[in-house]
Amino acid sequence: MAAGAAAGGAGAAAALWSEVNRCGQNGDFARALKSVNKILQISKDDVTALQCKVVCLIQNGSFKEALGVINTHTKVLTSDIIAFEKAYCEYRLNRIENALKTIQSASQQTDKLKELYGQVLYRLERYDDCLAAYRDLIRNSQDEYEEERKTNLSAVVAAQSTWEKVMPEDLGLREATYELCYNSACALIGQGKLNEAMKKLQKAEELCRQSLSEDSDVTEEDIEAELAIIHGQMAYIMQLQGRTEDALQLYNQIIKLKPTDVGLLAVIANNIITINKDQNVFDSKKKVKLTNAEGVEHKLSKKQLQAIEFNKALLAMYTNQADQCRKLSASLQSQSPEHLLPVLIQAAQLCREKQHAKAVGLLQDFAEQHPANAAEIKLTMAQLKIAQGSVTKACMILRSIEELQHKPGMVSALVTMYSHEEDIDSAIEVFTQAIQWYQQFQPKSPVHLSLIREAANFKLKHGRKKEAISDLEELWKQNPKDVHTLAQLISAYSLVDPEKAKVLSKHLPSSDTMSLKVDVDALENSHGATYVRKKAGKLTGDNQQKEPGQGDVKKKKKKKKGKLPKNYDPKVTPDPERWLPMRERSYYRGRKKGKKKDQVGKGTQGSTTTGSSELDASRTASSPPTSPRPGSAAAVSATSNVIPPRHQKPAGAPATKKKQQQKKKKGAKGGW
């Protein structure tokens, strides 16, 4: 009975193995897994069955479960047997450090492990080691995956150029695929060759369309989704070139496609936030959600993630979220203690809260702890002091930056600030220190001579003539043929010692020996000349008239005769006051009297017109006449022709008729 049961079990196992083999060839790993589990019920420590189970789980994407099987059966599945599968599961679960340890602990480095090793090094951003690993793989392997290895190699070179600013070497790769073209473009962006990079991306887009259009199952939407990363890089180049509107439009087009790559979406959202800056904050707050998607941290490099976090802190500052800004900047500072941006963001937030002294103190502490970055921090401190109105303290901070003391820009800034504070001695001291530095380290530098000349001009301007003469003599000794310096020196001596100026003037070259080689006519006719000499007219009679064909002669335009009025009478002298308004003419006597409606409302408020007496019943013909006042004869004569009330027409009757007629006309015209 026992022997028969064993034979039956062996037969069942053989049938199950054949099922596993058939399902594996067909790619049906879910069904194969069921058969493997049945085999393990018969023999739970079967090494081959356990290996098959791990492979089936990996093919189904169950990496965590596959790793659990490996860790549960460590006695049976030793590192020599299952090293690649274990490392691959750890890699896919983003346990990159563990994957590296598993690969390095394997006794035999197979080709599969070497391939995975290159991927792990790339994720760890160990680009030099990764480059060496891929070169070794390409050199020692010949199979159908050579093109993929070259693509990975070009990706490593692009990463070095972008993140480590390493000048990429020419690998001699033939850019026959759009992936290789894209990686080449990324390397060019890292070098700052934006126009060349754009051309490479355009070529990559063309190759991508050609490659995908050959497959009949691929739709236009699939092609656009594949092109999204290329278009995103194009938009980034536009942004770097200052074409922010074009870049923003392309970024938004990509977001509308809703690509599945969370890393791409996060980068695009971050770039839009950088374009918005402190404007369009509502849009930035929506875009920042895309940077918080699950899995973003595994898709981007450390520097990309760091840039996103910096922008989050700045956005919090712009949206007046002070606590959030402090929290994010403090977190960034703990991650990168030597980095400048976190402390600068904290200082900016304190300044927004009007805590300038606290901001300066924070920057001072950072400068003392990190002397390598002290120059940038001190420049910011000086800016804050200037904003507070403490120009002298700002100058002291700037002068403490030893590596910048001799720079022309720093000298110019300090001299300007000291001049503003009317501290001429300190300004001259700045010039002196810079000149001494160049005299010691770069005596023949053009900057050295330029500083001496500027110092002399400054001293002359502020009445330090003897000191200026000393500087100019030093310049002239270094170059005795410099006429410009000699002229300045003579000019300076003329203010102090005229006799010495006369002696030095003998060294000036004579006007005969000086050939300026200046085309006066060209200079006068040049753009921006304030005076242009008119060409003299030719007086000879032969030259006054040009023969036909000698050149174009400008014809004088004939003046058109003005139109005369229709009632113009040439015998009558025109009115000399015809250009004046009627009211301003000498013969204007005003309007005719009797038009009461035109007189109503004129004059000062509350006054009455001369015609108001007619409305007074006491002044009618039946009323007794009033005695005239002295000097009112004109008024009496004007009222002597008044018609009695019974013979008068109703007031305003003619006007009412006219108004009615006008209304009728308007009604007929309007189509009522």
Automatic annotation (TrEMBL):
A GO BP entry: SRP-dependent cotranslational protein targeting to membrane
**The protein's role, per its UniProt record:** Component of the signal recognition particle (SRP) complex, a ribonucleoprotein complex that mediates the cotranslational targeting of secretory and membrane proteins to the endoplasmic reticulum (ER). The SRP complex interacts with the signal sequence in nascent secretory and membrane proteins and directs them to the membrane of the ER. The SRP complex targets the ribosome-nascent chain complex to the SRP receptor (SR), which is anchored in the ER, where SR compaction and GTPase rearrangement drive cotranslational protein translocation into the ER.
**Classification via Pfam families:** SRP72 (PF08492), SRP_TPR_like (PF17004), TPR_8 (PF13181)
For this record, the Gene Ontology CC terms, alphabetical, are: cytosol; endoplasmic reticulum; signal recognition particle, endoplasmic reticulum targeting
Ranges annotated as biased composition (Low complexity): 601-635
**What organism does this protein naturally occur in?**
Otus sunia (Oriental scops-owl)
This entry's Gene Ontology molecular function terms read: 7S RNA binding; ribosome binding
Give the keywords, sorted: Acetylation, Coiled coil, Cytoplasm, Endoplasmic reticulum, Isopeptide bond, Phosphoprotein, Repeat, Ribonucleoprotein, Signal recognition particle, TPR repeat, Ubl conjugation
Membership in a protein family = Belongs to the SRP72 family.
UniProt feature, compositional bias: Basic and acidic residues: 566-587
Where it mainly occurs, coarsely classed, is: cytoplasm
The record places domain Signal recognition particle SRP72 subunit RNA-binding at 534-590
Per UniProt, subcellular location reads as: Cytoplasm; Endoplasmic reticulum
Q: What's this protein's name?
A: Signal recognition particle subunit SRP72
Instruction: List where Basic residues composition bias occurs.
Output: 554-564, 656-672
